[in-house]
Amino acid sequence: MYLYKNQSAAALFICFMNKEKRQKLIKQMIDKGDITLFKEIFDFYDITPVILHLKTNHATLTSHINNPSRLRMGKIISIADYFGVDDFKMITIVYNQIQAERKSKRRK
C-alpha cells in the first residue's frame, strides 16, 4: 500500500531533509491521516534517531514496530513527544496497527 504514487521517491526526498523538517513532516502526515499505522512512520523516518531518543537498541525497537502490543504506554508517549504529535493520536496509531494485525490473523 503506497500513500503516494511514487512512495520510494517521497522516502528518498525525506532522507535528504534535516532532522527537524523530517519530524515536522511526519507530524503533518499523522495529523492529515496519511499515516494510520505505527509501522508506516518508519517507512518515511529513519529508526536510528528514535532509538537514541528512547535509549533502547535496534532489535528492541524493531520488535516493537513489528509487534506494537508489546509497547508500553511510556514509550508510546515518548515517541509522540519526539515527533511533536498528540499523545492520544500516537496511541490511536499503535491501536490501529494492533487491530489490523488481529483482523489479518483471524482471516487466516
What is the fold's blueprint, element by element?
Layout: H1 7-15, H2 19-32, H3 38-44, H4 47-54, H5 58-66, H6 73-83, H7 87-107
Helix pairs in contact: 6-7
Overall description:
The protein is mainly alpha-helical and 108 residues long. It has one domain (19-107). The chain is 73% helix and 0% strand. The protein contains 7 helices and no strands. The chain has helices at 7-15, 19-32, 38-44, 47-54, 58-66, 73-83, 87-107. Helix 6 packs across helix 7 (87-107). The two termini are 20 Å apart.
Short summary of the structure?
Helix content is 73%, strand content 0%. By secondary structure, it is mostly helical.
Tell me the number of structural domains. Answer: 1
Overall 3D geometry? globular
Q: Secondary-structure element sequence?
A: HHHHHHH
Low-confidence stretches: none
The overall average pLDDT, rounded, is 86
Structural class: mainly alpha
Q: Tally the helices: what do you get?
A: 7
Helix content: over 70%
Number of strands: 0
State the separation between the terminal residues, measured CA to CA: 20 Å
- Main beta sheet: strand number and arrangement? none
Structural Rg: 14 Å
Question: What percentage of amino acids are in beta strands?
Answer: under 5%
